[in-house]
Design goal:
single chain; 119 residues; mainly beta; 7-stranded mixed beta sheet; 4-stranded antiparallel beta sheet
């Protein structure tokens, strides 16, 4: 069974950091690109970042550039999203998904992890 499971969300103060994890099972993660998305209440889901299967190519939404870093450890079949200098507007449910190539149709999604940035 193909599965992606996110973890690492929580409550953090503005300016703080969190690292989200996306653990894959049932398939080999290094065959796929990995993306992170988020959806805030009342808003559409937006793409945050994507990394190629090797991790050598990455892209970011303008709203998170310079603050978030996507990475992956294919040996652990896990991808990460390091989030620094968090802002209240980063509050959302964060999802990971996988695809063949960044920009193509997403194959499967995790269940999401809540990130709340508040003082």
């Amino acid at each position: 069974q193909l599965q992606l499971v996110e973890s690492g969300g929580g409550l953090v103060q503005p300016g703080g950091s969190l690292r989200l994890s996306c653990a894959a099972s049932g398939f080999t993660l290094d065959d796929y690109a990995i993306g992170w998305f988020r959806q805030a209440p009342g808003k559409e889901r937006e793409g945050v970042s994507c990394a190629s299967n090797s991790g050598g190519s990455t892209n970011y939404a303008d709203s998170v550039k310079g603050r978030f870093t996507i990475s992956r450890d294919n040996a652990k079949n896990t991808a990460y999203l390091q989030m620094n200098s968090l802002k209240p507007e980063d509050t959302a449910v964060y999802y990971c998904a996988h695809t063949r190539v960044c920009g193509s149709a997403w194959i499967d999604w995790g269940q999401g992890t809540q990130v709340t940035v508040s003082s």
